[in-house]
Amino acid sequence: CAVSTGMPTGLDLDEPNRLAETVEKLGLKYAVITSVNRDDLPDGGSFIFSQCIKKIRIKLPNCKVEVLIPDFQGDWDDLKTVMDSNPETLNHNIETVERVFKSVRAKGNYRLSLDLLLKAKELNSYSVTKSGLMVGLGETWDEIINTLKDLRESDCDLLTIGQYIKPTPKHADVIKWYT
Which residues pair with 162 in a beta bridge? Predict the structure, then answer.
């Protein structure tokens, strides 16, 4: 997640084909697709996510596909583009509790992330929704529980919880190690 900010080059329209070929060569039964945010694109990258899912399905019809997506800045048409491709799992990470959220995801919005998970389920009730939560950034136990409740109210089916580890000296300190 500690990716440098910059202006990416144009969209590589052959990427979905290369990805599908790689998934086929590896004989994967479950593929997870993610990317850095593409806020530079009008659709936030939703088209390329959709094409990746479709191309994998052509090569390996039985391969399950999970996509870890950005918030698309709340553009539900972009989310619909992805959900119409029928990913088995739609993953969007909440990252942390609401109080700490802005310090971890300055350009994100806690409530928007919850809304996205709920909207994904409304757009495609067959897809599993999933999120990820980091702990160790100074959150309280009650804040963790409230975040779990918020995710459940957003119809989130699966959750991964991981210990935050400081990736570089410039990033936030680890406040607590959970065991």
Answer: 134
| pTM of structure | 0.92
The first and second tokens of residue 78, run together, are: 């972009």
**Tokens in use for 151?**
């995710």
The percent of the chain in helix, strand and coil, each rounded to the nearest 5, is 40, 15, 45
CA-CA distance, 152 to 157, in Å (whole number)?
7
User: Tens digits of per-residue pLDDT, 136-154?
Assistant: 999 999 999 999 999 999 9
- At 155 the three-state DSSP class reads coil
Provide the angle, in degrees to the nearest 10, between the axes of the packed helices 110-123 and 141-153: 30
Query: Strands (DSSP E) along the chain, which ranges?
Result: 30-33, 64-68, 89-91, 128-135, 158-163
Whether 52 contacts 81, CB under 8 Å: no
Report CA 53 to chain centroid distance, whole Å. Answer: 15
Question: Residues 10-30: pLDDT tens digits?
Answer: 778 899 999 999 999 999 999
Instruction: Identify whether the C-beta of residue 119 lies closer than 8 Å to the C-beta of residue 79.
Output: yes
Burial grade of 165 (CB within 10 A; 0-12, 13-18, 19 or more): exposed
